[in-house]
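hey so u asked for the seq, here:
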Amino acid sequence: MTGAELSNSLPGRPGHAAGLRQPARPGPPQRLRGRRGRRTAGHPPSDQPRAPRIALLQTSDETGFAWSSKNRLAGYLRALDDAGLERDDELIMSVRRWKGSGMGAAVGRLLSLQDPPTALFAETDDFAFRLLAVLREANIPVPGRVSVTGFDDHVMVGVLGLTTPAQPAAEIGRTAVRLARSVIDDADGAHRRHIVLPTELVPRGSTAPPPSPRAEG
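ran it, structure tokens below
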């Protein structure tokens, strides 16, 4: 799916650029099904920010094999719990052919949900770069309509203004060398170790608070 096709597939007024959604009309609460059962999502006043809805996009190959880290998915779910946000299976999406048409199709499905996400978390920065390109082609403003974040702190994130957690790459390398040396120096010793190094969230221009329904119209 191309950016233009994605734009045309999204709900909105005829001829409205990017197919942006209009403010939600008042109506009965909607029932949404998530991992932890159901929750009620009422309609906030049009001048109030929407509650955060954060989607996770993961990579997979043609066979459906996921290249993503299970720990990254676990961290995403734990962060939702810590923030008091509902888990929702609809917001976790594995994307095949993400360098081609797969990314546009995935974004189209997510933004066409009755209660679409306010933010898209791509599991790597390279993945997020492709995501930003698809949104730009469809004239979907970032972060005006939806926020985007990656993971890794790639060398190009500053140029593209991508919010992302930075991994301590140099320290990861030094730690790996120290562990390898310990095995070489004492091959018969106990070497099973689990080391967790800190990451740092680096905010940039791709993220902002959720927009109000009025701003999305």
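Residues 3-19+28-167+200-216 form a domain with the Rossmann fold fold (CATH 3.40.50.2300). Residues 12-44 have pLDDT under 50 and may be disordered.
lmk if thats what u needed
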